[in-house]
Amino acid sequence: MRLLHTSDWHLGRAFHRVNMLDAQADFITHLVTTVRERDVDAVVVSGDVYDRAVPPLAAVELFDDALHRLAALGVPTVMISGNHDSARRLGVGAGLIDRAGIHLRTEPSAAGTPVVLRDPHGDVALYGLPYLEPALVKDEFGVDKAGHESVLAAAMERVRADLAARPPGTRSVVLAHAFVTGGRVSDSERDITVGGVAAVPAGVFDGVDYVALGHLHGCQTLTERVRYSGSPLAYSFSEAEHRKSMWLVDLAADGSVDAERLDCPVPRPLARIRGTLDDLLADWELTRHEDAWIEATLTDAVRPADPMARLTERFPHTLSLVFAPERAPEDPQVSYARRLAGRSDQQIAEDFVAHVRGAGPDEPEAAVLRDAFDAVRADHTVREVAR
């Protein structure tokens, strides 16, 4: 069976205020063309279909168009909700849409109920594990402590139990939206840390033939059977070196996997350039970036006059301007933002405690902070879905 694995469409998302809807529509056309030309048997979409719980109407219309075009090809599509989606909204009408071969899996309680497809070699069971917010699903899965690993492990127990009851030789595919240990992050992914832990080990998914992951925006191979497709478009300058793609996965009769990486259309290349303003304007090695979307980091000791206007004369698609004067880290003028770069909310809060008290929090106090951040994030998720 030939599968096309994609994820993290983020329909409705902009890139530094640039409307990406046309680029997203081009990707959908590319996806449909690939399905037709490469004889794809099923499409799997591993979450974050939309960029937010209540997407703009244009994004909903594009999603509707994608579903109609895929259904018209007669190729089954299995989709799960991600941490950016509203599972309840995305799942509206799932039972009816199911009849058209579009299978939306947004309910955690259905983790052990697969979409079963057939090929000449027998059944292939596709299990959809939507994004599982630990605080909201721990009771469903009967776990004592809310954590990504515990709820995913419980969901996978249901998958393995169902698979064990199926005819011998049934092949299996799991769609999951999670941060798996070993994955490389980028700046455009929403933090899903719970209890100070974001990642789950790949071993959680042992026992199935292929795991189609979503959430991280870089295409990655964690093992031959566990892969991220990444997002089809770049959504931050941290993805400037990404090769945006999908996985074309051939699942053989014995469950072995052969995967080919297929490139996605690039609306405009990204480039990060760094130096003083005068150097950037004079450096002819940067000529190759003049048509790219640009993030320019200026290292001038004193902020120059009209930097954006001067930059856009040479680089008309400059979208982001960062000021980072070359100073020693201990220099008091180093910006607050630079001192916080790369630090989690938990670390920033602990630093604040150390600043006002002279000593950082002990372990019980750190646990209180973790619980508070987890509760706020879970409450935000509930409020977002209820909008």
Counting H and I runs of at least 4 residues, what is the number of helices? 11
**What's the shape?**
globular
Structural class: alpha/beta
Number of strands: 17
* Strand residue percentage: 15-25%
Order of helical and strand elements: EEEHEHEHHEEEHHEEEEEEEHEHEHHH
Q: Which bin fits the share of residues in helices?
A: 25-40%
Mean pLDDT: 91
CA radius of gyration: 23 Å
Strand order of the largest sheet: 6-5-4-1-13-14
Biggest sheet descriptor = 6 strands, mixed
Give the low-confidence spans: none
- The end-to-end distance, rounded to whole angstroms, is 40 Å
Structural descriptors:
single chain; 387 residues; alpha/beta; 6-stranded mixed β-sheet; 11 helices; globular
Written description of the protein model:
The chain is α/β, with parallel strands linked by helices and 387 residues long. The protein contains eleven helices and 17 strands. It has helices spanning 21-37, 57-73, 87-90, 94-98, 134-141, 148-164, 277-282, 307-314, 336-340, 345-357, 363-386, and strands at 2-6, 14-15, 18-19, 42-46, 77-80, 102-105, 115-119, 122-129, 171-177, 210-214, 220-223, 226-228, 245-251, 257-263, 270-275, 293-298, 318-323. The strands form four sheets. A six-stranded mixed sheet has the order 6-5-4-1-13-14. A six-stranded mixed sheet has the order 7-8-9-10-12-11, covered by helices on one side. α2 links the parallel β4 and β5 (77-80). The chain starts with a strand and ends with a helix. The model has no long low-confidence stretch (mean pLDDT 91).
